[in-house]
Write a structure and sequence with these properties.
By secondary structure, this protein is α/β, with parallel strands linked by helices. The protein is built from six helices and twelve strands.
Length: about 230
């Protein structure tokens, strides 16, 4: 991976903000991801994210921490937070912004245990494909304390397959409709595409049940998104 996401965060942090990140998927056109949004404070966060942060308890793992906005808020509230990300640039920026415990590490290599595991900004995306959901959930279960919770968000993107006449154009012979190819570009350079998974709530709930976890919906967002809590 080229870490264009991390490069963009470093540019913004260093005052070299001239362009935003451009994202797209195999079923959607280019969309702009404004760099200032990735440095947002609590008051600028969507209601769903604010609710997630209010639910945190005990020792927290912030998965895919990005620039560290969620970790910084929790730190300021006195939480013991560990922030991890697979982006070298993101961890560099998070540390410079003041995140005390920030580490370059993929989720599957984490071995410490936590009371709250936080996966936000479509947290199910990290699962990549349906075939890996149980694998990731089992790992999350293994690093969750007995009284712990996983706070995660996602979206039901079925709406993206509805045409102007109200019908759907999903290929029933293909995989789960939330499995997407995700593309990112920055300053004219393209990142290697990755797999990214959006899970509807009922599918997530069923997947949790199959690995011995319980899943409840906490709140619905403004656009087919939701926040869920997973535990024993």
């Amino acid at each position: 991976m080229k870490d264009l996401f991390g490069n963009a965060l470093v540019d913004y942090f260093n005052g070299n903000y001239s362009e935003d990140i451009i994202t797209s998927t195999n079923i959607s056109d280019d969309d702009v991801l404004p760099l200032p949004y990735l440095f947002r404070v609590y008051s600028e966060m969507p209601k769903l994210e604010q609710e997630a942060l209010q639910l945190c308890k005990g020792k927290v793992l912030d998965v895919g921490c990005g620039a560290g906005s969620h970790s910084l808020y929790l730190q300021d509230k006195g939480f013991n937070v560990k922030a991890i990300d697979s982006s070298k640039g993101a961890i560099k920026v998070a540390k410079k912004r003041g995140v005390i415990h920030a580490e370059l590490k993929p989720l599957l290599e984490e071995t410490e245990t936590f009371n709250t595991i936080l996966l936000l900004m479509n947290g199910t995306g990290i699962f990549q494909e349906m075939i890996q959901v149980s694998y990731y959930l089992k790992h999350l279960k293994s690093i969750l304390n007995p009284d712990g919770q996983i706070i995660i968000d996602s979206s039901d993107i079925k709406y993206m397959y509805i045409d102007e006449d109200g019908g759907t154009w999903m290929d029933i012979n293909s995989g789960y409709y939330g499995e997407l190819d995700y593309y990112l570009s920055y300053k004219g350079e393209n990142e290697n595409p990755i797999k990214w998974l959006y899970l509807d709530f009922e599918t997530l709930k069923l997947a949790c049940k199959t690995v011995g976890l319980q899943c409840e919906k906490i709140i619905d967002g403004n656009h087919y998104d939701y926040l869920a809590r997973i535990g024993f």
